[in-house]
């Protein structure tokens, strides 16, 4: 995977942020995300609603901001569950503008 510039300082990195600018999630935020994934699984099973693709089965569900923080959303804003692939696709489309 090609390196991309850090969202904060522009240094090339394998992630959206360089190691110096990685976000540190609080225990409360990790718990909130885990609860969102658990609630989604309880209601929908291991099913990703898809992002720019059809809904599909997925074991690797993650909690994602409905309106990304990078696009002006709030850290405490509402979450949705997507698989890692859809979450990455959404992130990459926002980074490209």
From TrEMBL:
Pfam families: HNH_5
Domain HNH endonuclease: 58-95
Sections of the chain in a coiled coil: none
Protein name: HNH endonuclease 5 domain-containing protein
Provenance organism: Kribbella turkmenica
């Amino acid at each position: 995977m090609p390196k991309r510039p850090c969202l904060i300082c522009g240094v090339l990195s394998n992630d959206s942020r360089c190691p110096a600018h990685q976000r540190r999630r609080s225990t409360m935020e990790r718990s909130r995300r885990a609860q969102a994934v658990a609630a989604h699984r309880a209601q929908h099973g291991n099913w990703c609603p898809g992002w720019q693709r059809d809904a599909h089965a997925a074991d690797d569900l993650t909690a994602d901001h409905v309106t990304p923080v990078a696009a002006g959303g709030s850290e405490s804003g509402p979450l949705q569950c997507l698989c890692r692939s859809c979450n990455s696709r959404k992130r990459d489309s926002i980074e490209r503008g």
